[in-house]
Design brief:
Blueprint (H helix, E strand, L loop, with lengths): L3 H22 L5 H15 L28 H6 L3 H14 L1 H12 L1 H12 L2 H7 L9 H13 L3 H8 L9 H15 L2 H26 L23 H4 L4 H11 L16 H9 L17 H17 L6 H18 L18 H10 L7 E4 L12 E4 L11 E5 L10 H12 L3 E7 L2 E6 L25
Parallel strand pairs: 1-2, 1-3
Antiparallel strand pairs: 3-5, 4-5
Helix pairs in contact: 1-4, 1-5, 1-6, 5-6, 5-8, 5-15, 6-15, 6-16, 8-9, 8-10, 8-15, 9-10, 10-11
Length: about 475
């Protein structure tokens, strides 16, 4: 039976790897975010640091979010310079987080509970939304949180803090999660270890937010304070409880987080570790943080399922914690809810024929992109960017840099994404491109490749507006 946790993790890794690599091959990944992170990892691998041209000239990714953990991927990228390295690493990290949850359930509740909780975590909508939207730095946090929270449930205080401590190198807000782990330890167990965790977590976040990020940010300050300000008037303490539950999308998200555990996870004190992430998301004025899209719920899923195991373990040994029929029904209902939610989120694409076949348009795009020489400076549509970032110097067509700084321009006219330029605006910009010394080299299935004519100097392009819409890259939070 000892093989069950690793069998679950291996199964999840294979599913994730196929899903994410296939999406990339079908041009469903994007410059914002996969291209951004690939440029950062490529910079580490080449010894230049995480300089990301997609965010701006000479932009240091450590000034956007403090994520030096990305450097751990540099040796793998050096061996195989491809965006697929990032996607495979993400698949492995998210999958291995199932091991501590499944192992705990196996030891305390048996193989059936282990399988249900492990697969419930692995197929959860929070992970589906993250894996269905490129790569993100928080992938490093998922296994660290899983091992830490399970250690909390098993009252292994030093191990819990040791697993949580590296979170301060993953993202600036996760220091508060470390502090929450410390607070739990202080409350339930070892005072010295708990205080150490609180000081480490709060101190690290303050250092990163107030010193390190401003020092490396082009703007000289943390770029996302406005997302937490509550608007121009700031926060009203009297309405703070109401802000946590309005609009109703916030309540829906919380209920969906708990639904696969039949809401039982809410009864575990381990959910304290989820409060920092839930808090800043629900109090933010950025609607992207309130819902179920993108990568924002990935770090919460291991906490929720560890809390589920915690409640079931305690119910077995403590008469009266749960009515017996609820305890017996919890696992089959959990499995049913997990499977019922699958089609509504990104993993539902696994059951679509579109993921399993390669359209002629995609083959045409690959052929057109192969025309661009290695090392060229290219302005590309958002969906085409990560197909080039391993071998070219790439910017997004339309924002934030002018396309006129690139020798090559490649745009998907057949299926415009609508970001950063609306389709009408993109067509206007392409008309300007064609009249500014760029000549069409190839065009196939709407994938149009242009090159600046020899001996011509293109005028500055009209300034594109900043991107509207949430989730537009690493800058979304």
């Amino acid at each position: 039976m000892r093989f069950i946790p690793w069998a679950v993790a291996l199964t999840l890794f294979l599913i994730y790897s196929f899903f994410t690599i296939r999406r990339h091959e079908l041009l469903l990944t994007s410059g914002y975010d996969l291209g951004i992170f690939e440029q950062g990892v490529r910079g580490y691998a080449e010894g230049r640091g995480p300089i990301v041209e997609l965010k701006g000239p000479g932009f240091n990714l450590l000034g956007d979010h403090f994520s030096p953990a990305l450097a751990a991927l540099a040796p793998f990228y050096w061996l195989w310079p491809s965006a697929k390295v990032l996607l495979l690493a993400q698949s492995a990290l998210v999958a291995v987080a199932a091991v501590p949850i499944t192992r705990w359930a196996l030891r305390e509740l048996g193989p059936v509970a282990a399988g249900v909780t492990g697969l419930g975590y692995g197929l959860s909508w929070g992970l589906a939304s993250a894996l269905g939207f490129d790569f993100h730095e928080i992938t490093f946090a998922v296994p660290l949180i899983a091992f830490s929270v399970v250690a909390l449930g098993e009252r292994r205080w030093i191990a819990a803090l040791a697993w949580a401590a590296p979170l301060v190198l993953v993202k600036e807000d996760l220091g508060i999660t470390v502090a929450a782990v410390g607070a739990y330890i202080l409350w339930r167990g070892d005072r010295r270890v708990g205080v150490a965790g609180i000081l480490l977590g709060i101190g690290s976040s303050l250092l990163e937010l107030l010193v390190l990020l401003p020092a490396m940010s082009p703007g000289g300050s943390f770029a996302y304070w406005d997302n937490l300000s509550g608007g121009s008037g700031g926060r009203n303490l009297l309405t703070l409880p109401l802000d946590l539950i309005t609009p109703g999308e916030k309540v829906t998200t919380v209920l969906l987080l708990l639904a696969p555990t039949v809401l039982l996870a809410a009864r575990s004190p381990l959910m304290i570790v989820a409060l920092p992430t839930l808090g800043w998301r629900l109090l933010s004025n950025n609607p992207a943080y309130w819902g179920t899209s993108y990568h924002y719920s990935a770090v919460l899923m291991p906490i929720v399922f560890a809390a589920f195991v915690d409640v079931l373990v305690k119910a077995r040994g403590w008469q009266g914690l749960l009515p017996r029929w609820i305890a017996r029904a919890a696992l089959p209902v959990s499995l049913t809810v997990t499977l019922a939610l699958l089609p509504g989120f990104a993993f539902g694409q696994l059951f679509s024929t579109e993921l399993w076949r390669t359209p002629a348009r995609v083959e045409a795009a690959r052929s057109v992109l192969a025309t661009v020489p290695d090392g060229a400076r290219v302005s590309a549509s958002n969906r085409l960017v990560p197909q080039l970032t391993n071998r070219c110097e790439v910017i997004v067509f339309g924002w934030p840099q002018n396309w006129s700084t690139a020798e090559w321009i490649v745009v998907d006219e057949g299926q415009p994404m609508g970001w950063p330029l609306a389709p009408d605006r993109e067509r206007q910009e392409l008309a300007t491109v064609r009249s500014s010394g760029y000549q069409v080299v190839r065009s196939d299935h709407g994938i149009t490749l242009l090159r600046r004519a020899p001996g011509t100097v293109a005028p500055a392009a009209t300034e594109a507006p900043p991107p509207a819409g949430p989730g537009a890259g690493a800058g979304a939070g």
